[in-house]
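4.2 Preliminary Data

To establish feasibility before requesting continued support, the project team ran the inverse folding procedure on a target of 450 residues. The structure was first converted into the token representation described in Section 3, and no sequence information of any kind was made available to the design step. The complete token record follows.
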């Protein structure tokens, strides 16, 4: 039990940024719960609650990577029941992040009932109670399921840190969007179905996680024969610098974006605001792989006769060759969707530069990460994402907000120039000793005191 608690504490405090976000999240959730006990639910309380849950989730975002590394580590295999302890710590962390929202939401519904007016009958009380119970279980199961899948997305992205990892993450996001469609088209779906789906998913993950070493040993002969058969037929080609940076094949990610977009059409994303919001989010994903540029460039610097400033120029060109193709596909998708759905021309005029700004900002935010992901980069990334999402919503609302959209897009363009200047300055004075892949994680110390 002590080892599990120590692991949970490490998930939320493994880096300075994680400690800051976890502290802010816990504080905002506590303030929201206290406010609900004293005043009626308001929009401000809801915003504080959502901000607190988002901050707490960001604080624990390193949990999938730490869990995976410790599960595969040779050192921890000697610890008794290590996989059970790791599984318990992961599930508890998941519930810590996911449960506050449905609990406080149901509590807000309870306290929002007016104390005035005629007393409800027994039948009305029973109906209210049944509705609250159904809302709680449906909300809890959905929140746990979505939070768990987002952790899976983080695992793919942080463990592989390449286009393949992003594609796997996009596939999971598409699956999360695909399955809840039943609740959208059928609001009367029973809560027990949501609970069954959530329980089945957690049980499946638990069984696979605990018995994974045995399953992998059983499948090793088959995988070995398949790998050996294709080892001589596959070849990797491209520029050397692109191969080392993981930007040699941009069309893999560019075309991979089509699957979530096509699945989104099943839900009925025919709102202009939702479509622009959705594609803007995708534009920032393509630039996220630039966060590994400094780590991968250590090998380039040792092998090439370049100064740090010259190396930055080459790395920048490599990522733009990659992200330019991905951005081009997104721009074509926006024009195609806008034409098919007969979206306003004003929206397309504002949306095209918005998608470009999303890719540019995320790329230079990634290139700024030369000393590890610190709280400055985290806060700046969150601020940029919120601004991009706000511009997407404003651009789709009406023509009256067009002036505000233009001003915000100009401000984001200026910010992109500033971020490039900062990134180039950091690369000029880069310290290669701080550009190691596993410099920030200290999960081993968490389980050493089992």
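Position-by-position output of the design step:
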């Amino acid at each position: 039990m002590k080892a599990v608690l120590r692991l949970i504490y490490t998930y939320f405090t493994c880096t300075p940024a994680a400690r800051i976000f976890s502290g802010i999240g816990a504080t905002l959730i506590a303030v929201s719960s206290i406010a609900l006990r004293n005043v009626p639910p308001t929009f401000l309380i809801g915003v504080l609650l959502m901000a607190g849950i988002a901050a707490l989730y960001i604080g624990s975002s390193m949990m999938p990577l730490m869990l995976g590394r410790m599960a595969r580590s040779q050192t921890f295999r000697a610890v008794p029941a290590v996989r059970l302890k790791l599984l318990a710590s992961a599930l508890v962390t998941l519930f810590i992040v996911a449960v506050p929202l449905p609990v406080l939401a149901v509590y807000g519904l309870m306290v929002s009932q007016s104390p005035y007016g005629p007393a409800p009958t027994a039948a009305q009380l029973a109906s209210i109670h049944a509705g609250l119970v159904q809302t709680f279980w449906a909300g809890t199961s959905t929140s746990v399921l979505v939070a768990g899948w987002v952790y899976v997305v983080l695992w793919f992205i942080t463990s592989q840190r390449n286009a393949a990892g992003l594609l796997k993450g996009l596939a999971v996001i598409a699956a999360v969007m695909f399955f809840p469609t039943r609740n959208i088209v059928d609001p009367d779906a029973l809560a027990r179905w949501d609970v069954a789906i959530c329980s089945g998913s957690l049980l499946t993950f638990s069984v696979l996680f605990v018995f994974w070493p045995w399953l992998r040993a059983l499948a090793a002969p088959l995988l070995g024969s398949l790998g050996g058969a294709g080892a001589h037929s596959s070849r990797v080609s491209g520029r050397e610098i692109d191969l080392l940076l993981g930007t040699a094949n941009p069309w893999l990610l560019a075309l991979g974006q089509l699957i979530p977009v096509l699945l989104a059409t099943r839900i009925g994303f025919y709102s202009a605001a939702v479509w622009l919001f959705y594609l803007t989010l995708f534009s920032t994903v393509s630039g996220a792989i630039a966060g590994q540029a400094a780590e991968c460039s250590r090998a380039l610097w040792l092998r090439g006769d370049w100064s740090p400033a010259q190396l930055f120029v080459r790395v920048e060109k490599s990522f733009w060759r990659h992200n330019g193709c991905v951005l081009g596909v997104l721009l074509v998708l926006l024009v195609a969707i806008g034409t098919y759905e007969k979206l306003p021309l004003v929206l397309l005029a504002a949306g095209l530069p918005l998608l470009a700004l999303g890719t540019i900002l995320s790329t230079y935010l990634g290139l700024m990460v030369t000393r590890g992901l610190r709280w400055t980069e985290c806060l700046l990334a969150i601020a940029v994402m919120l601004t991009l999402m706000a511009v997407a919503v404003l651009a789709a609302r009406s023509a009256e907000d067009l002036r505000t959209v233009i001003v915000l897009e100009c401000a984001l363009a200026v910010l992109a120039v500033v971020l490039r200047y900062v990134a180039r300055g950091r690369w000029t004075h880069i310290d290669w000793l701080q550009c190691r892949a596993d410099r920030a994680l200290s999960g081993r110390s968490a389980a050493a005191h089992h």
